[in-house]
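Subject: Interface between my chains keeps coming out wrong

I've been trying for a while to get a sensible model of this assembly. When I model each chain on its own everything looks fine, but I need the whole thing in one frame so I can look at the contacts. Pasting all components below, labels as-is. Any help appreciated, I'm running out of ideas.
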Amino acid sequence: MSAFEFIPSLLSGLGVTLALTFGGAAVAATLAWIAGLARMSHQGLVRVLAGIYIETFRGTSALVQLYWFFYALPLLGINLSAMVAGILVLGLNIGAYGAEVVRGAVLSVDKGQYEAATALNMSAMQRLWIVIVPQALIRMLPPAGNLLIELLKSTALVSLITLSDLTFRGMLLRSETLRTVEVFGLLLIIYFVVAQALVCGLRALEQRLAKAWHLENIA
Amino acid sequence: MKFEWTFAWNVLPELLMALRVTVFATVLGMALAAVLGLVWTIARRGSVAPIALVARHIVEFVRSTPLLVQLYFLFYVAPEFGLAMSPLATGVLALGIHYSSYLSEVYRAGIDAVPKGQWEAARALNLCFADTWRLVIIPQALPPVLPAMGNYLIAMFKDTPMLSAITVLELLQTAKIAGAEHFRYLEPLTLVGVLFLALSLGSAACVRWGERRLGVIRPR
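Reply #2:
Try treating it as a single job with all components included. I did that and got this:
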């Protein structure tokens, strides 16, 4: 059996890996915006709550969080399926890092832009969504892209809470065939190819946004 | 079911012992990563094009594949080549290799910040390759990147629970065993989280302090 024949069996786990990556990214992006903006709120309590979320999920390990959600939460009466736990934890974890990216990008928008928007009598919401967010978004893309790759790599952890992702398939295939070098070698190559595809996609998106919004100078 | 403080109190000493393994793996892994990262950076900067190309691709590959799979690869493949290592040694090696790829990028930024005139001066003084790096470039490039290295040290610390997947008796693995023995995962796993949080917040404060000492402005 040549090593190439392992590929279909490995790829059957790719769907789970991609679902976790994109599901996790959706959760992470939402949380990153909420926590990132909340961190800059005028309300002290909102700021503190966002800070607690960010520090808790950045300060503990992703794998520990995964185990906690999967093995410890049921003892408190909350049962999550492995898939839900996986998406939730990856989203919460990467979202905490993303919140800092959002905050950094929003703060990096020139102060004159706030002042101009205020001078134009825009409401706080208009100021945020019409003036600040588009400019912050383009600055956010490169670090957000790095986080997406981190997210993709973190999905391998779900194999440890019994989800049948790419890594889990690799482990199964290894125990069936005992062809360790080929199986794990292929596994690494598949992750690498997916990561490169994501990087290329993000770079294209970045260029398109910069062009569409005439923001070449800052991108 | 409620959080039982007595049980938590009973498993705590065991977890603290295991924490030593976690810290040990982190420190050794970081030492390896620091040296290996420098090797990649110098190879990428060197004048031998094929070596530079290979080094660049190795870094890119290691950076974009999961640490867990790299860990499995080392753990299961090395014995097939007659290289039997203890799980802990394998774990340290994997952490070191993985993080050397991140540190290589950090060093690169530090080296780019060294003024070009310094390279020219070293050349004018007829310093050899090794002396240029050892006496001129590294002493200037290293201090500004120390805070970034500190951040990766914390990141590596948070990645050590993965070593439990290759049976290293670190913090998480010990908590899992304690949990399985008593059919209660809530307390040990929560304690592991709290211990990690306490140590990473503490180290992050140290990194920020170091940043101020070195007068480094936090990059956005």
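Reply #3:
Confirming on my end. Chain B has a mean pLDDT of 91.
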